[in-house]
Amino acid sequence: MSPPTPHEPPRPRPVRERPLVERVASPRRAGRRRPPAIVLRDVSKTYGLGAIEVRALQHVTLQIARGDFAAIMGSSGSGKTTLMNILGCLDLPTRGRYLIDGVDIRDMDEDDLADLRNRKIGFVFQSFNLVARTSALANVELPLAYAGFDRRARRQRAQQALAAVGMARRTHHQPSELSGGQQQRVAVARALVTNPTMILADEPTGNLDSHSTEEVLRIFAGLNQEGRTIVLITHEPDVAAQAKRVITLGDGRVIDDRRTAGLHDQPPVLHRQKSAHHLYGETHR
After folding, report:
1. Domain span holding position 156
2. What is the pLDDT at residue 198?
3. Mean pLDDT of the chain
4. Spatial separation of the C-alpha atoms in residues 165 and 284, rounded to whole Å
C-alpha cells in the first residue's frame, strides 16, 4: 500500500496484539529457561556540551540474573545516574548493546520504549512521585490504566500489591495523610503491580529516616525472596550492603563488582553503620 499523500490524514497505528503488561507465567512455561534480566555489552554514553565531550559511561559490560538483588553505587559524577537512565529505557547508549529480559532496545522508537518500560520495569523514586489528592489505591492503579486493564481488574491487582507491602489498611488514604515511609511503600506497590521483569529503585531511601529506611529495605528483601529482580541505585554503603551484589562505578566505569550473597540466598542483614540505618533480616511470605 502506498504512503498517504500530503492531503490525506495519517493512518492510525495498528493496535498491538500482545498485552502491554505481562501476566504471570503458567506452570508449564515457567520451567523454560529465560534470559537474564539485564545484559549490558560494552555500553558507552557520551554527551556533547558545545565543544566539550563528556563521557558519562565507558565500556560498561555486566549481566544481572533474574531474581538477583543488585545495588549500583557511586559518588556524584560516577555515571550511576546515566546507567540508571539506560537501564530504565529513559535514554539510549551511544555505543554498545542493552538487553532487558532478552529484548534488545536498539532502534526502538519512543512508543516501543514506553511500551517496554510499562511491561518490564517498575520504577521507585526518591521523591515517591505519587499523585496528590489521590488515594493510594488509585495511585497504584495508574500503570494498569495505561495498560488498558478494566476497572475491576485494576482494583483487584492494586489491592493485592498494597497488601504485599503492608498497606492494605491505607488504600483510601491520600499521600498527604501518609508518612514518608508509607508513601514509599505505595510507590513500591505501584512498581510491582504490573509484574515487571525488574524493580529499578533510584535512591529509594534518600528522603527517609532510619526507621522508614528499615521498613522499605525489608520490603525489597521480601520481594526478592519471592523471586523478583531488584536493582537499587544508592550512594549509601550500608543501604547497598542489603543487596546480594554491589556494583561500584567510578568515572563512568565499573571499578568493583562483588557478590555478598549467593543468587538464591536470602539478602544479607543490613548492619548498623554511621548513618544509623539498621535492618534485621526477615523473611516475607
Report:
1. 66-94+109-259
2. 93
3. 84
4. 10
Residue 175 CB burial class (10 angstroms; 0-12, 13-18, ≥19): buried
For residue 202, the domain's CATH number is 3.40.50.300
Residue pair 178/165 in contact by the 8 Å Cβ criterion: no
Phi-psi region of 194 (alpha: psi -120 to 50; beta: other; left: phi over 0): alpha
Establish if 236 belongs to a structural domain.
yes
pLDDT per position as a tens digit, 61-76: 999 999 999 999 999 8
β-bridge mates for residue 95, sequence order: 44
Between CA 274 and CA 285 the distance in angstroms is: 31
Residue 160 covered by a domain: yes
- 269 band by pLDDT with thresholds 50, 70 and 90: low
Residues 205 and 236 sit within 8 Å (Cβ to Cβ): yes
Q: How far apart are CA 12 and CA 280, in angstroms?
A: 54
**CA 93 → CA 43, 44, 90, 245, 247, distances in Å?**
6, 6, 10, 23, 19
Count of domains for the chain: 1
Instruction: Tell me which of 257 and 10 has the higher pLDDT.
Output: 257
18 — pLDDT class (breaks 50, 70, 90): very low
- Tens digit of pLDDT for each residue in 45-61? 999 888 889 999 999 99
Q: Where are the alpha helices (H) located in 196-250, listed in sequence order?
A: 210-225, 237-240
The answer to whether residue 234 sits within a structural domain is: yes
Residue 217, classed as helix, strand or coil, is helix
Q: Please tell me the distance from the alpha carbon of residue 256 to that of residue 254, in angstroms, as a whole number.
A: 6
The helix (H) or strand (E) run that includes residue 69 is: strand 69-73
Asked whether residue 281 is domain-assigned, the answer is no
C-alpha cell at 179: 508518612
